[in-house]
Write a structure and sequence with these properties.
Two copies of one chain form a homodimer.
Chain A (H helix, E strand, L loop, with lengths): L2 E6 L7 H16 L3 E6 L5 H12 L7 H8 L4 H8 L1 H16 L4 E4 L6 E3 L8 E4 L4 H6 L3 E5 L2 E3 L5 E3 L4 H12 L4 E6 L20 E3 H9 L7 H9 L4 E5 L11 E4 L12 E16 L5 H11 L4 E8 L6 E8 L3 H10 L1 H4 L3 E14 L9 H11 L6 E5 L2 E7 L3 H11 L14
Parallel strand pairs in A: 1-2, 1-9, 2-6, 3-6, 9-11, 10-12
Antiparallel strand pairs in A: 4-5, 7-8, 11-12, 13-15, 13-16, 14-15, 16-18, 17-18
Helix pairs in contact in A: 1-5, 7-9, 8-9, 13-14
């Protein structure tokens, strides 16, 4: 008996059959004695339909949400949000009806009805506060709360929508506000894996993973959970369970529990291997050796809105000159190069080289805090396969290397094997 | 310079081209110096799509809104309203964007944002109160208010929707709350006609018509305006203009002004000829001549939920017995006959006759208050064409007759001609 929040994305409520299936899962939690709030997205395709209507009003605006948001420059974002939020409004009503039809008391809650207050940034709003004084008592009286995800109300009493992946954050923030015991994120995979199963068929689903590990994995390209939702859960010590919305009724579906590190994880040094191909490498050659040179480079990138990730300074063996290599997101490469060329005199360098065909491969694990030898195992495993390392970056629980993209799968498989990640894990534990 | 409310129905906002055309009309009123609030329906077809989704959740529920509402028995009407109201939410946002794109400041207003408060009757709610403290100042600052029609918020903070034709009533009630000078209802006809132009090609559009005449015409089957909206306008002395949403830009589109009777109408005795085929005639034969007999009949009908319209008592020439003839709505005939048969002993009559093939034809005009001879002209015109009158009913500004349906068109044309309704009217007057 407890209070839980369940979240279902667009493909999980894509049609009426899927909505009925969701009502079955919710009814099971109610039957188990839980108080349940459900956060739903729009039926898949519906948000795109609404965005296309807005786009078509602008003859000269290319379709696509990102492009659109850029083009509008904020001037009609308030109306855009009001239009797009109608998609979740429909789904929340339909699921509430489906639940009542099977005898489960339920009602829908729109962002303004809770209210879920956001800041003024339309279309990418951040949650400021979630009121629990109305929805809390309704839950306590035995009603399922079916909450329209992705939407809120801002200080001007207008509908606002959260950024991409915002429904995960809605769900976690709601769980925090409702002092829920757990937030269950239903998605199209059945949990968090030791690595991408398309690359390593022996990849295992993890029973548990620590928040810090999940944050590293999320930001490294494992796209299951939005980074902000994990941060929010970690800061509030709210366990998140990631599990499949596609599993048949009655089928075992334990998922992965994302929670604070605990005893069950202590045996494990490395939890997973992640990779990201969205990287580009830039090298500045023959740098003038003046104080503050790296700071000037970072400022040039920052002014251009480009985030610098891995960074390493080196000395050329041939002429003993200094050079600097760093990585940026692949989509930012052109912007970065243009900014560097414009600042060539101010920074002081002879030439630029760049490379898009690089991949960042990382091993992540909270056990690295107390275990040495992870770096050695990693570099040996890569060397054994003849894979060159271009750049290395480390954090307390992560080691990342930049390699030639051609070797991506080879490297991931070598590391998965080197850290014995295919081995049977400790027995599954029951979620709280 | 003044404040006006404009209302556009579903066919007037059916697609983005029509929404752009609406924005042109609104922009013209703004350019003329008016403060403008616009009430919009859902894009045509959208409400049906949403209703179909709800229907499909109930496998055993036949499609169709009326049937649906009946079946649900109120238990999911709150969710139904929340789902269906999303249609107007989308249109209001799209029109606000279309207006801004042409440089007209505009914003959408949902029922809960105004707020437009209703009673608790979901799906057929009545407006309780419209707050003008937010929308009024916004209008005064030069912003067009684009209001989602058909929807409100009830005491429980839930979305409610008004009954059928509710957008007309939304618009008029909003105009009253905003102390507007006029409410313009854009529809698929270009005004109120002296009679149905499909029956009488010479029928003329009226420049003006009195509220009382419009009420008689609306309740007699001319389906342009909802009766409740006309009552509300009359009680608040708010002129309504009915005009075409299909007219080309720049085309003369004066419409018909519905307002209190004034000097410009005084010349006219009869304003229009209306007819309704949705009538059935019931005759009770050889009635027991006891006190309260008519009251007992009316009670039997009232208990069965049947509205009795025209009523006439007669004496049979052959046997001197009393009989009673009255009309009910055609769809109520079976219910009425069953109720009468069940009450045959209590009422006391020998036999029942009924006839569905009857039509009510009416002449309406406020000039009848001060002019005699209308009835004579009417009966002579019908007699000249050999049309028998079954029942006669009159009010202060209306004479109705019940005739055999076969003669409907003949009767309407004869009356239109007898009252010179095809003649050129007084010169058009400018709407306020």
């Amino acid at each position: 008996m407890g209070r839980i929040v369940m979240k279902f994305g667009g493909t999980s409520v894509a049609d009426l059959d899927r909505i009925r299936a969701v009502s079955t899962r919710v009814a099971a939690e109610v039957a188990a004695g839980h108080e349940v709030a459900v956060v739903v997205s729009a039926m898949s395709g519906e948000t795109n339909r609404l965005v296309a209507l807005v786009d078509a009003l602008d003859a000269d605006c290319a379709p696509g949400e990102a492009k659109h948001a850029e083009k509008l420059g904020g001037d009609v974002h308030d109306e855009y949000d009001s239009i797009v939020a109608s998609g979740e409004q429909v789904t929340s009503g339909l699921l509430a009806i489906a639940l009542r039809r099977r005898g489960v008391p339920a009602r829908s809650w729109l962002g303004w009805q809770i209210p879920l207050r956001t800041d003024m940034a339309h279309s990418k709003a951040r949650i400021a506060e979630i009121e629990s004084s109305a929805i809390g008592p309704s839950l306590a009286q035995g009603n399922v709360a079916v909450v329209a995800g992705f939407q809120g109300i801002n200080e001007k009493h207008r509908v606002s929508t959260l950024g991409r992946g915002g429904s995960d954050t809605s769900a976690v923030a709601l769980a925090v506000a409702l002092k829920a015991d757990r937030c269950d994120i239903y998605t199209d995979v059945d949990g968090i894996y030791t690595t991408d199963p398309r690359v390593v068929p022996e990849a295992r689903r993890l029973n548990r993973i620590a928040f810090e590990e999940m944050l590293e994995l999320a930001s490294l390209g494992a796209k299951v959970l939005q980074v902000r939702s994990v941060e929010l859960a970690m800061n509030n010590n709210l366990p998140i369970r990631v599990l499949s919305s596609m599993a048949d009724e009655g089928q075992d579906n334990p998922g992965t529990l994302v929670c604070h590190e605990d005893q069950t994880m202590e045996e494990r040094v490395v939890s997973g291997v992640a990779y990201s191909r969205d990287e580009a490498q830039i090298t500045l050659l023959k740098l003038a050796d003046t104080p503050g040179m790296v700071a000037r480079i970072c400022k040039a990138m920052s002014d251009a809105g480009v985030i610098v990730d891995m960074i390493v300074q080196g000395i050329s063996r041939s002429d003993n000159s200094a050079n600097l290599t760093f990585t940026v997101g692949e989509r930012d490469l052109e912007t970065a190069l243009a900014a560097l060329e414009a600042a060539q005199d101010a920074i002081g360098f002879a030439d630029i080289k760049s490379d898009r065909d690089v991949t960042k491969v990382s091993v992540v694990g909270i056990g690295m805090r107390s275990h040495t030898g992870v770096a050695q195992t990693m570099f040996e495993a890569l060397a054994a396969k003849g894979i060159n390392i271009e750049v290395i970056a480390t954090s307390e629980i992560k080691i990342s290397v930049l390699i030639d993209s051609e070797y991506t799968e080879l490297a991931v498989r070598a590391l998965h094997s080197a850290f014995d990640l295919h081995e049977t894990p400790a027995p599954p534990v029951t979620a709280p």
